[in-house]
């Protein structure tokens, strides 16, 4: 379940916030932690990440100095939460211009009317077992397979940085590509070892046949 959603500029200004789920007792504390996390995010931070707490997970998507945030129950699929945030991001940046949402004269909750779109969209994502949501979850067109996950206590109290997470993510992608190339090479070597002698024998027979009937 998605409990709350926010759109926040990296300078800390909240542009949109959904209506909170009052059943979540720790939500106030979590929102305090969100404010601390926002202070640690820079334009070079990991663009998509999930930060886990005891019972809940904070997911964010970073784009153009805006941070799109959702708090979900811990069991909610990370990929689905990030796809939800990508939908919110796409609609918001289509509805408003960059000059508008990065302007200096904005007040907190300037785009509160956008909360209606968030609520409508959230309803379609609330049940992660729904057929449409499972389809979204498996949609490879959404490039959220490389999701960095971090514990919020490590991030806030042990000094880990989101920039460091970005470096880790880059290394993981590089290592993945390296292992993929190695696997392809090994597969070719196995094929050559298994079928090479037969191929060589066939080639010799072909040469003999051509030489005999030339």
From TrEMBL:
The chain crosses the membrane at residues 195-213. The keyword Metal-binding does not apply. InterPro entries: Longin-like_dom_sf (IPR011012), Longin_dom (IPR010908), Sec22 (IPR044565), V_SNARE_CC (IPR042855). It comes from the Eukaryota. Pfam families: Longin, Synaptobrevin. Keywords: Coiled coil, Endoplasmic reticulum, Golgi apparatus, Membrane, Protein transport, Transmembrane, Transmembrane helix, Transport. GO terms for molecular function: SNAP receptor activity. Residues 133-193 form the V-SNARE coiled-coil homology domain. It is a single-pass type IV membrane protein. One of its GO terms (cellular component) is Golgi membrane. It is found in: Endoplasmic reticulum membrane; Golgi apparatus membrane. CDD domains: Longin (cd14824), R-SNARE_SEC22 (cd15866). Residues 6-118 form the Longin domain. GO terms for biological process: endoplasmic reticulum to Golgi vesicle-mediated transport; protein transport; retrograde vesicle-mediated transport, Golgi to endoplasmic reticulum. Its main location: endoplasmic reticulum. PANTHER family: VESICLE-TRAFFICKING PROTEIN SEC22B. Belongs to the synaptobrevin family. This is Protein transport protein SEC22.
């Amino acid at each position: 379940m998605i409990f709350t959603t926010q759109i926040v500029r990296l300078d800390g200004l909240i542009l949109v916030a959904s209506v909170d789920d009052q059943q979540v007792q720790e939500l106030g504390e979590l929102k305090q932690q969100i404010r601390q996390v926002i202070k640690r995010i820079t334009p070079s931070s990991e663009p998509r990440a999930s930060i886990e707490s005891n019972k809940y997970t904070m997911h964010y998507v970073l784009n153009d100095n805006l941070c799109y945030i959702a708090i979900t129950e811990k069991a909610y699929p990370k990929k689905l939460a990030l796809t939800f945030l990508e939908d919110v991001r796409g609609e918001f940046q289509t509805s408003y211009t960059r000059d508008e949402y990065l302007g200096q004269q904005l007040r907190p909750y300037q785009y509160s009317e956008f909360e209606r779109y968030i609520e409508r969209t959230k309803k379609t994502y609330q049940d992660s077992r729904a057929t449409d949501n499972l389809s979204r979850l498996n949609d490879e067109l959404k490039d959220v397979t490389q999701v960095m996950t971090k514990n919020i206590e490590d991030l806030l109290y042990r000094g880990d940085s989101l920039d460091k997470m970005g470096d880790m993510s880059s290394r993981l992608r590089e290592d993945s590509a390296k292992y993929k190339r190695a696997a392809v090479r090994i597969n070719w070597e196995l094929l050559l070892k298994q079928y090479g002698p037969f191929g060589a024998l066939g080639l010799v027979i072909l040469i003999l046949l051509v030489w005999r009937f030339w």
